[in-house]
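User: I'm putting together a small comparison set for a docking exercise, and I want a reference complex before I start. The sequence is below, and the ligand is flavin-adenine dinucleotide. Could you produce the 3D structure with the ligand included, as structure tokens?
Assistant: Of course. I'll restate your input first, then give the structure tokens for the complex.
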Amino acid sequence: MLRCEAEVFRPRTLNDALQMRADMPDATVLAGGTDVMVYLEAGVLKPTRILDLWGCQGLRGLGFADGSQVYGAGLTCTDVLQSVQAHPLLRDAAATVGAVQIQNRATLGGNICNGSPAGDTLPVWLALNAEFELASVRGFRRVPAATFWRGYKQMDLQPDELLVSIHVPAVTGNSHFRKVGTRMAQAISKVIFAGRSVAGREARLAFGAVGPTPMRCAAAEEALVAGAPVDEVVRLLEEEIVPIDDVRSTALYRRKVAGRIVRRWLESLPRG
Ligand SMILES: Cc1cc2nc3c(=O)[nH]c(=O)nc-3n(C[C@H](O)[C@H](O)[C@H](O)COP(=O)(O)OP(=O)(O)OC[C@H]3O[C@@H](n4cnc5c(N)ncnc54)[C@H](O)[C@@H]3O)c2cc1C
């Protein structure tokens, strides 16, 4: 049975949350708790204080500002799935997280700040050119998703900061999401792909679970924009990703599957 003696703080407003974060940078932040509770149960985390954001107002909005779509960090996967405004790539990713019980609690902010390279929404943010808005009592700052994850579970996030929202500019093009796991639900990804292509102008080929951080394949993207054959794009991306052998899969399997996902998607796109 889970036993935790930590004192729990439940801010109701963002201002209160930021003040508490500043006063208690050692406190464990909890949003939906679907990762944190596992760490508590396993004894990996032994916090004395928990900052519980679940009831914090202002983190669950989905709207528009300055031409961008703005997702509150506290939106759950279920919120995303129930919103007609959410980008299809994000809806596809949200639908693959755990199963319904997990989707009801799992937040976007938790997925991003848990920092696991196998987080299913992470390649989506790369494919959508998203920026993360981080806040502290010192102010707000924006960090591109492309530079947020710096190494395995290493993020550009200060101890007094919270992720408050995700900004997605108006993007166009064909897009595709694919998660490969052992089962259709409750499976940690072996390979995750989120792609977007505007013929001759822009390409995003973003992967998760094939390296220490979610990553884009810059050389393959460049080749795709330049109109290179699919074989060449696939060859380049198979070179760029850096998968490992682990309990879930082998590096070879991940490399081959990553190439196949992209090949099938590109071959299904209208030519031109
Ligand atoms: C049975 C099960 C199945 C799962 N299946 C999947 C799956 O298929 N795909 C997948 O991607 N994940 C899966 N997960 C992992 C988890 O559900 C997701 O990562 C989820 O999005 C985490 O969100 P949360 O709100 O529960 O995060 P929490 O557990 O509350 O927090 C996660 C981390 O983020 C930090 N954090 C949370 N919010 C903020 C914030 N606003 N600012 C700063 N830091 C913050 C916390 O301090 C913590 O370090 C699964 C978990 C379980 C238990």
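The chain has three domains: 7-52, 62-169, 174-268. The radius of gyration is 19 Å.
User: Thanks, that's exactly what I needed.
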